[in-house]
Amino acid sequence: MNPTYAIGLDYGTNSARALLVNTANGREAAAMVWNYARGDSGVILARDPNLARQHPSDYINGAEKALRGVVALARKKVRGFRPEQVVGLGVDTTGSTPLPVDAQGRALALDRRFASDPAAMAWLWKDHTSSAEALEITALAGKIRPRYLAKCGGAYSSEWFWSKILRCRRRHPAVFKASHSWMELADYVPALLTGTEAPDKRAIGICAAGHKAMFNTEWGGYPDAEFLAQLDPALAELRSRLCPRVQTVDQPAGGLTVEWSKKTGLPAGIPVAAGAFDAHLGAVGCGITPGTLVKIIGTSTCDIAIVSNTQPLADVPGLCGIVNGSVLPGYFGLEAGQSAVGDIFNWFVNYIQPRGPRHGSHESLSAAAARLPPGESGLLALDWNNGNRTVLVDQRLTGLLLGQTLYTKPAEIYRALIEATAFGALTIINRFEQFGVEIKQVINCGGIAEKNPLVMQIYADVTGRAMKVSRSSQTCALGAAIAGAVVGGAHPHLGAAMRAMSGVKTKVFSPNARAHSVYQELFRLYSQMHDAFGTSSGSGHLQNVMKDLIRIRNRARKSA
Amino acid sequence: MNPTYAIGLDYGTNSARALLVNTANGREAAAMVWNYARGDSGVILARDPNLARQHPSDYINGAEKALRGVVALARKKVRGFRPEQVVGLGVDTTGSTPLPVDAQGRALALDRRFASDPAAMAWLWKDHTSSAEALEITALAGKIRPRYLAKCGGAYSSEWFWSKILRCRRRHPAVFKASHSWMELADYVPALLTGTEAPDKRAIGICAAGHKAMFNTEWGGYPDAEFLAQLDPALAELRSRLCPRVQTVDQPAGGLTVEWSKKTGLPAGIPVAAGAFDAHLGAVGCGITPGTLVKIIGTSTCDIAIVSNTQPLADVPGLCGIVNGSVLPGYFGLEAGQSAVGDIFNWFVNYIQPRGPRHGSHESLSAAAARLPPGESGLLALDWNNGNRTVLVDQRLTGLLLGQTLYTKPAEIYRALIEATAFGALTIINRFEQFGVEIKQVINCGGIAEKNPLVMQIYADVTGRAMKVSRSSQTCALGAAIAGAVVGGAHPHLGAAMRAMSGVKTKVFSPNARAHSVYQELFRLYSQMHDAFGTSSGSGHLQNVMKDLIRIRNRARKSA
After folding, report:
1. What is the spatial distance between Cα A543 and Cα A534, in angstroms, rounded to a whole number?
2. A376 and B344: CB-CB below 8 Å?
3. Among A124, A131, A558, residue whose Cα is nearest residue A387
4. I need a labelling partner for B445 at 20 to 30 A (CA). Which of A62, A133, A512, B434 fits?
5. Helix, strand or coil for residue B84?
6. Residue A318 has pLDDT above 90, yes or no
């Protein structure tokens, strides 16, 4: 029998990637990456360090280049490959990355009038311009709709859908007015590929809506109009123009259009699965089961667990979201995460560039850091350079490094930054378990898990748990391809598809008992700092410090 | 009339320098620097980052090379110069930098048996190996001799004489046993040049003894034998072998020996003034008066003020010392300081070396930092990479940087480090004034005051006070030369010599009101962090954090 294939189309922060896999065993037949052309590696920046946008033309070009490229590559590389063997396609993206669209579902930034206006582009997941709006939404929900908050960790984030849209409405009224509706990138791409952008044809994935837009069937979908109207009457009107029809990733958004078939060389009409966030499809790519924590470690980290939706589940304070069906149908998907992990290491390497480009590379710093015993540097860092997503849900927190002497070396700082992210990871595991979500195994995936054994060993030593690593080096794209395989009929359901197509590497990182005991001490200090700077109940009462600095900074930037 | 000259012989952390000045106006006729040959720029380091020693051969060679060099240079450069025009010589050094000597007053490390033993070398001012001993001395004095502590800020430092000697006694008994006595570098050099090393001929400067060895005529000189015996009976025995005869810098230690005359080309017999610390002679070089704060800004900072000894003066908690005559006879010399200033900037440039050597130079970082408005980076740092000398008197504090994002740039950190030292400086000024020592003007000197206008402007903006800069680029050496001029008879007393020979530059750095108002806010945050991490009364109760890290670090190093 001829093999069949599925494609995962994966939208990262800096590139789009298409991965062609064999539906029988998940083996990767071909992959094609296209780096976004705009901005700084695809991210449009501004003087305000909180701003991070992407231009939708990069998304459209990315789909074309990556899909056409992977088909062409497979023709060359895979003996006997024919595009007709591709049975389906899944899509995963960053998020919450909402973009304004016109009445036909076309991205507003494609309109010449708005082509260079960052407010009309996609508001990238890590855009933190909307923190005032996030506070306002949190405050209002706390007052009149506490149940909205209970499902998203007790605080609505500046990274999320409604914060960004409210910000746009307030600060960029012309853009808001010209937009008919807003779509998450995870929904925009499947709609684009299947020609279902128009409001009457559109469906959306439960993953993005549930985790980022407070969508929940318990309360009839999106937050109610009365609630939204109290934020701004325009949001209540917008609600009626948002798509209410939700899908899980085992359902098709539609079939590939003839236009996209021509652009890519893929068969017209093959089903495209409903889109979901990279992390959630990464969990699928790792073969998630109840009791597994999947950590997708890249620029930021997402931590995903699932719990059967037939059992009662307490709301877990500080988690980004608890959404029925966001990973697999029949399970609550629980999402936690760290706002920056690889991005913190990248900051140190790219912005600080210690001792210049050669000595300050990730490879060189990792090698030197690996030689340092735990605790030896006397350093302690907080992993908050991009805020704290879980458990504090506070984007206005910032980085901290403590313990420097006159002899502190770059590799010591690099290691301290890795350790800080490991302490952040442990804080999340502890929070899951405190609220009854037992974590029996940890499976890691993403570039850092794949490439940096030092990070994995430190995570094992800090958490005292074995760290497994997904077999695929493109686990999110693999998860999208698994969804594609299911909608394409290659497997009856996601469970069967995961069993056939996912797996972990034989190399497992086991905790070193001596290192773990040092890290237990350091973690107590981390927790003390975490609570002092991040909570009002910590021993520190220093919760004001980082925020006061941001207030002073913003004023300085304004008056400069 | 032919001009007469005096020489200031200045021992820094990395070099020895001889400065030849005209006694009529302080004008510099010639200068010669000799970089120490041993260790890392003259500092002998070890695995323990607290250890910092110097080899006495560098001191002896330094005197010879710098003095002979300056005489030779003056012969070439100054028309009609004859060495006979040099009337006197003064000596300033780092401190507390004690070294063990044998029964003839010869440095123990010159003995072949001890030539490479760091314990037998000079224990450089910034050696912090003796923190446990410092705590022990502080605790004992607090219990049985509180008046000893009252004159040195309430805590005896690990940087000081007795802490280092007690450490040597405990950890290096062979060295301690082989030593007959201990001398401060400030006393060792004049004794060496004048052949008064032998115990019966020796005198010592009140500056080093008073500020670092708890010497005070109020209680009969050094701490009493009973007190010392409770620390260790060997210290009580040592007391009887320490020189009890003290001098101010307007008194001669002796005349230049024939041997040193031959080595240097200077006239035999010219008077050499009693030695003092660089900071105290720097204050003389700045023309200090009551109401003036002199800041000597180099690798670390000393802050010197004087108050007439005819008036009552409250003990000022946290000051390094209050010593009658340590700067000028007739005045209490008050010493405060920051354990690292230039050393923090040097750490960032030399150890972190952001973006490599070219972009990460002091010049390049200063230029970029100068373009940033106050508060714009959102960063806040503590200036404790080398501990805190004033007002916390705690060497076991470490550095802290807070507010980093994913876009924080090296120049922003560099500026935050400068600001941190400025906040530290303001903390000291405030402490002086809270205890009745009014500061009417601030005169800065030292390499950084001289070379980095950004630092001076930030100090003005942070403190809200004008920053004046000493006219001489070698103010400490000038101060030593002023002492040399007085012992050489060129002026009747230091007051007259200072009026004739010192002065400030015409360029004064005035505070910018807008910058000052931003810095007032940032200083409140600095103070909050200062108290949280540095005191038990701060809002933070985080006083344990830095120390726990050091404890963990030390254990990790031991077991590695």
Report:
1. 6
2. no
3. A131
4. B434
5. helix
6. no
